[in-house]
Amino acid sequence: MITLSDVYLDLPNFSLKHIDLSIPTNDFFAVLGPTGSGKSLLLEAIMGLMPITSGTIFIDDKDINALPPEKRNMGIVYQDFALFPHMTVKQNILYGVRYHDLSPSSVSTRFDLLVDQMNLSHLLTRYPGTLSGGEKQRTALARALILDPGILLLDEPLSALDPMLQDDLKHLLKSLHQEFSTTFVMVSHNFSDVLFLASNGAIIRNGTIEQTGSIKELFEQPNSPFTARFTGMKNIYTLPAASPALASMVQHNGNRPRAEHGHMALRPEEILTDNRGARDTCFAMEGVVTRLISRGFFYDVVIQMDTVELTAQWTRHDVLVKQIQPGRRIPFFVPFTSIHTF
């Protein structure tokens, strides 16, 4: 387990502050946050590349503050790959072996396994300048994993790749995590990557942890307006609700807010165009469409309902078949379980 206890890291123009974090062994853990929130700095603090100002980092209850990066049994892969341009793919992969006490036979076995899994056998004599983005990323992953690290840190591992390569690498990362007894910690702000890969995570904002929990909890049970907005809730309202329809939802959803709850939220994709046979578990509402915003394969549909606006997220098929357009009054449905208060 990785444990950060009251960790501070002070830089001239930025700081990590009061970081308390626990990452289970063999977990696939995601650190999410806006650009400039401290995600990559947090990885570098765990790796030992950026010395912390105060607090303690533990690996399995062992204080590793004084250990240099090469003694922490970790690997790190950056979004720009950081390959040595004057070395071949094979030389890059094997570069770190000389600095670790690994038997030649175990290195050879692991090398063959990684080269096979990552489809690098035909590239071993090539140089990084001749590789595609996906080939560079697979080489960087093999270089980190050849050392059999207990922890692999991934800094935006998919952001430099085109969409097709991103999809391939997501499946590769998932299979690698299942294959090796390694804890993966990934920095990302791409929700689809996180939802596909990670089990647990943390949201960081301005150098502080906003919320930790399972990925499901982060996206469906935010604990603050910032977390709700960041994870795409879109429909966030203060309580008590001024809208009669919202007030009715909160009152009758079976999960009434506690006294300290000042907000309610509703994910746009959980607003339905029909009740799909679940009439007894949905609120039946109606409103006037004010805007349609194309997002490519789906639309944001903005609906005026009594005194508030809601944003739904519906497929192009639903919008076309149901002839949804601005100015039209339409029915829609909200499952009881979709109403969240915090």
Summarize the SSE layout with pairings.
Elements: E1 2-10, E2 15-23, E3 28-32, H1 39-47, E4 54-59, E5 62-63, E6 74-77, H2 89-94, H3 104-117, H4 133-145, E7 151-155, H5 163-179, E8 183-188, H6 191-197, E9 200-205, E10 208-214, H7 215-220, H8 225-230, E11 235-238, H9 244-252, E12 263-266, E13 282-294, E14 298-305, E15 308-315, H10 316-321, E16 329-335, E17 340-341
Structure described in brief:
With 342 residues, this protein is an alpha+beta fold. It has ten helices and 17 strands.
Q: Hey, roughly how much beta strand do the residues contain?
A: 25-35%
The first-level CATH class of the largest domain is given as Alpha Beta
CATH superfamily of the largest domain: P-loop containing nucleotide triphosphate hydrolases
Radius of gyration (Å):
24 Å
CATH architecture of the largest domain: 3-Layer(aba) Sandwich
- Element pattern in H and E: EEEHEEEHHHEHEHEEHHEHEEEEHEE
Number of self-contained structural domains? 2
Across the major sheet, the strand order is 6-7-8-3-9-10
Work out the helicity level.
25-40%
Largest sheet: 6 strands, mixed
Report how far the terminal alpha carbons are from each other.
29 Å
Low-confidence stretches: none
Total beta-strand segments: 17
Reported by name, the CATH topology of the largest domain is: Rossmann fold
Can you tell me the overall shape? globular
Describe the model.
The chain is α+β, with helices and mostly antiparallel strands and 342 residues long. The chain has two domains: 2-220, 3-Layer(aba) Sandwich (Rossmann fold), CATH 3.40.50; 233-341, Beta Barrel (OB fold (Dihydrolipoamide Acetyltransferase, E2P)), CATH 2.40.50. It is built from ten helices and 17 strands. Strands 6-7-8-3-9-10 form a six-stranded mixed sheet, with helices on both faces. A four-stranded antiparallel sheet has the order 2-1-4-5, covered by helices on one side. β7 (151-155), α5 (163-179) and β8 form a beta-alpha-beta unit. The relative contact order is 0.12. The model has no long low-confidence stretch (mean pLDDT 89).
